[in-house]
Request: fold
Amino acid sequence: MTAAAVSRVDTTDAETLLELVDIVKRFPVRSGRRFGRPSEHVHALAGINLTVRRGETLGLVGESGCGKSTLARCITRLHDITSGTISFDGQDISALSRRRLRPLRRKMQMVFQDPYGSLNPRRRVGSIIGDPFANNGVASGEERKRRVQELMRLVGLSPEHYNRFPTEFSGGQRQRIGLARALALNPELVVCDEPVSALDVSIQAQIINLLAELQRKLGLTYLFIAHDLSVVRHVSDRIAVMYLGRIVEIAETEDLFTHPRHPYTQALLSAVPNPDPDQVDDGARIVLTGDVPSPVHPPTGCRFHPRCPRARERCRIDDPELTVGSEPDAVPTHAFACHYPIPDSEPGRTA
Amino acid sequence: MSLLEVEDLHVSFATPDGVLPAVRGVSFDVEPGETLGIVGESGSGKSVSTQTIVGLTRGARVSGQARFEGRDLLTTPASELRRIRGAQIGMIFQDPLSSLHPNYRVGWQIVEMIRAHESVSRKDARQRAVELLELVGIPTPAQRVRDYPHQFSGGMRQRVMIAMALALNPKLLIADEPTTALDVTVQAQIMTLIKSLQREFGTAVILITHDLGVIADVADRVVVMYAGKPLEYADKRTLYHQPHHPYTEGLISSLPQRGDRGSALRSIPGLPPSLLRIPPGCPFQPRCDYATDRCRSDEPPMRDVEGGQNHVSACWLPPDAIGTDAQAVLRRRLASHDDGTVERDTAVDSAASA
Reply:
């Protein structure tokens, strides 16, 4: 039923590159005894339904611990999912063996947050970027070197630095190395897990511009994960908001920012500090009380209800589904999971 | 008299690669009850400056003055500085987990801190600890004092740090990236807390951050630092709407909020310099669109910016070249041509016309 609700949201099937249906991921929490059976589970992803269209940038936002990175790792099959289906390019990849998965790995790549932890410090840059070629037997010798240097030029690194070590590069340059490695095999989907959060503001802008330029040149599809909402707003076509293992709202970027329907999205947006001192408005800020609850014992009903200013009795019992609102003027691309959504103040807007 | 007056502070460290000048001439004042923001990227010297003031940079070569209520902290012996630190000047750091001892209960740590400065009984100090945790909004404080740091979430740990920093009602609170490790929703909680406590107790705050959004939220006046030097001082409104220094302008225009969605952000080209190889002239000159020959040879002094109150900037651009919009850029270019003293960089001209 949830799947049906979502397919009503996304009807353009021909354009779908990645489709997630009811993805559940649980991690066992082991008790003290060494061979003890896991008595409890962290419910990291609790039924994720999501489609990513070819050529778009889908932003994924949420607080730490909401399952953003777990979702990224499940999509790229770095984690095995507990249940659900992942279809990539029309093919169900959720149960493929490692060997069968291999050719598909070329089509989806990942860029990681930490440019210091994700590059082996003892290996030269040329060989790090050349790894995908070596692992897939694509090019070797001079040919590999030529293609690596081409990639380095593509991401704005000097090809003469082929023989340097990662320590000789700054954070922004390292992120370019990680990007070159991800692009080596012409992927279709690039999952960027917080690609700019470790960088200084002036460098962050350089990398965001580079990502946009590469998308135009190479026709890439991005799943862009970040906790910085202003960055996500700048790069994304659509944005999905996650809370405690669920997607609570998904909409086109401007629609989400101007007309949030879920109270969590509204609180998240209002918490972003505005750098313009004249637009700082303490009255409009919704400060959520308390912390994100533990994903080991998620709340009953709506998972947001203990922190929600709009929560009523029903929210404690009944778990809302992700659907387009029932109003006659509901926007078909805007879905949210809330029993008492924020009313849409502008009735005559275009869908 | 200002609460804190820092004058021409220099800090350098001996490293295997040579002497590293981390701070190269910083001066600022903090008035009682006000909030001074220090913005800068990594390596700009913003943390080293304040850590030196409170005597936390051991082994550093320090010169200059830092007068706290008229008394120079840089020449105060370590034993007396210990008494000032904590009681008169409170501190909060970025990472609340490594600032708390993992093996001791939170209550014990607060009690120790109070008893190090005041002769009170354990019982009274403990009562104070419970009250403090309640003040910073920790639920069921009487139970929580018996918990260890790992039992608190990141935001709650930062609240504990704030409770400790404010325990002895200091006159100055130094908050070094207090919300960088936290989510935006928690950041909003913590900044609201700091603001309300500041209003209640009249504490002056030095807020160090790389986030201009946080500055806009709480700071009164702002210092922009780059490569160990302050480049611009202004109140936050002037700084955001009428920046004079091209680095400040670059920082503001590289914010995603400023750009239209999907369009390219105006980034600052290049990288901050290594402090071991600081370029001659203005430290920002290799990355600056407006750099001239003068910028490459002479280091600009702090000069008053036209029309601004207490607005100073270390840049050779004419004092009336302010603002981030295209018009201001044009104004600058015209102004620099009219002067007849400055020669335009041809590369910049061709880039601008493209």
Remarks:
- Chain B touches chain A at residues 41-42, 153-156, 183-189, 191-192, 210-217, 236-237, 240-241, 250-252, 254-257, 259, 261-262, 264-269, 271-272 (CB under 8 Å).
- Residues 337-354 of chain B have pLDDT under 50 and may be disordered.
